[in-house]
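job 3f2a | input accepted
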Amino acid sequence: MTKVMPRLAIVTGAARGIGANIAERLCAAGYAVALWDFDGEGAAARAAELVTSGHKAIAARVDVADAAHVEAATKAAVSAFGAPALLVNNAGIRHRAPLEDLPRASWDREIATNLTGAFQCAQIVGRLMLKAGGGAIVNVASMSGTFGQPLRGAYTPSKAGIIGLTSLIAVEWGGRGIRCNAISPGMIVTPVHAEAYGNAAVKSAREEMVPMGRLGAGNDIADVVVFLASDAARYINGANIPVDGGVTKALVGLMPIAAANGELTTVVAQLGLK
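job 3f2a | predicted structure (274 res):
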């Protein structure tokens, strides 16, 4: 009897947060998952938990900015589970600083990890997908890639680049069996943001900004990844899907205006939408 290999999904930045949620959801969907992260111990711990739960998973310490790391980890994943069916470019870093004070080294490192890293993973893994006849790539961008956010340094330009890279891959490889889409998360509660959301006033104020009235969770992103990887999304290619509870569509409604009594309010408040 021929042994059927599980579909291989590679998830970068998978040790914690959104990446860990994505890896878990993909395992539940029947994928064998390779968890890559600069934090190799964290990735290994997460993979071990998945294996203990009956799933197929391996881990590797990978600096996505280093092509040699990506090549070696890809070879190991393919050796374990066969040709990759899905790549999720989720790895990313962020250095907060005013633009005028942003060190060049920080800029270079963010671009190398967030954008060049995604390109390298897509190129190296994509070659195997092309050889195998197809696959899917999902790039995790950000609402910061569409709307400039102050003090984000190279993060906003790198995520804007991710959206552009997604379009390029979709156009060049779509006819060769590879679909590529991006997801732009909004305000998602993850361990990285624990300090900000630990402040009740900040959390409440941000919830008020979201039309759905709540902040997002990692699984809100992970479920969209699973959908985009599936045959249900077979004709979606080159899209950038905001997964933000509608916050980016509501920003104009939060613009201050003068009420009839002269006090400042917003369109949203005046219409009683909150």
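job 3f2a | The chain has a mean pLDDT of 91.
job 3f2a | closed
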